[in-house]
Amino acid sequence: MWDPQKYLSFSDHRDRPAHDLVARIGAKTARRAVDLGCGAGNLTPLLSARWPEAAIEAIDASPEMVRAARDRGIPASLADVRDWKPQPDTDVVLCNAVLQWVPEHVDLLRSWLPQLPAGAWFAFQVPGNFESPSHVVIRELASAPRWRDRVSGVLRADAVRTPLGYADALADLGAEVDAWETTYLHALHGENPVLEWVTGTALRPVRAVLDDADWQRFRAELAPRLAEAYPPREDGVTWFPFRRVFVVAHRR
């Protein structure tokens, strides 16, 4: 279950990669622009602003996120990205921080790209921070005797490739590929900010399998471990490095 309010509490930081990604899409015009995995719809306006003539399509698999997007006036549809098929007029696709949740996403990319019309653009970014302390600490706690029978098997596996890995896969389809990685250094504020960050993303599967009391216990055990890995400065800022992988594929 996604919590739109929790996810959007760091929207300034989470949205920045999408702006950087859209800036690398070279489409001058678009008949249809798709926000694939639109979440709460906070990034969909990037598409309508950049391509005002385009029909906007937005889908997400979370009922909570779709409701939040619709509350924003985004005509979002409830659907799993695995079931999505490009319409014949799809000229631009934005897929922001979605495909890391889909282990077979490279196979989906190999299916989607040939279905796009000539000249179409497919742009996506995925977190590349699976080996960062935030994920390592979560996995370590989940594997502890107290939690491993209920939690360790539900965490996301690392399905994210390097920029080179994605470039090779998509170039094999005849696409022109622009792939790179960036490590953002987010300045977080407040008490246990990294815990609050991962609560909205990496910890979702954990929350789904624990009752309220155990969820609070898990968070309470995780908080000091994350605080040790990401100590706050005296001025209250907590630095949170976050690596992301970007790919823009242009179908010739």
TrEMBL record:
Pfam families: Methyltransf_23
UniProt cross-references to SUPFAM superfamilies, sorted A to Z: S-adenosyl-L-methionine-dependent methyltransferases (SSF53335)
Top-level taxonomic group: Bacteria
Any one of the GO CC terms: cytoplasm
Enzyme Commission (EC) number: 2.1.1.144
Enzymatic reactions: trans-aconitate + S-adenosyl-L-methionine = (E)-3-(methoxycarbonyl)pent-2-enedioate + S-adenosyl-L-homocysteine
Record has Protein transport as a keyword: no
Localization per record: Cytoplasm
Residue ranges crossing the lipid bilayer per the database entry: none
A biological process from GO: methylation
Keywords: Cytoplasm, Methyltransferase, S-adenosyl-L-methionine, Transferase
GO molecular function annotation: trans-aconitate 2-methyltransferase activity
Record InterPro entries: SAM-dependent_MTases_sf (IPR029063), Trans-aconitate_MeTrfase (IPR023506), Trans_acon_MeTrfase_C (IPR023149)
Gene3D superfamilies: S-adenosyl-L-methionine-dependent methyltransferases, Vaccinia Virus protein VP39
NCBIfam families in UniProt: PRK14103.1
Function according to Swiss-Prot or TrEMBL: Catalyzes the S-adenosylmethionine monomethyl esterification of trans-aconitate.
HAMAP family given in the database record: Tran_acon_Me_trans
Family per record: Belongs to the methyltransferase superfamily. Tam family.
Name the record gives this protein: Trans-aconitate 2-methyltransferase
Species of the source: Saccharopolyspora thermophila
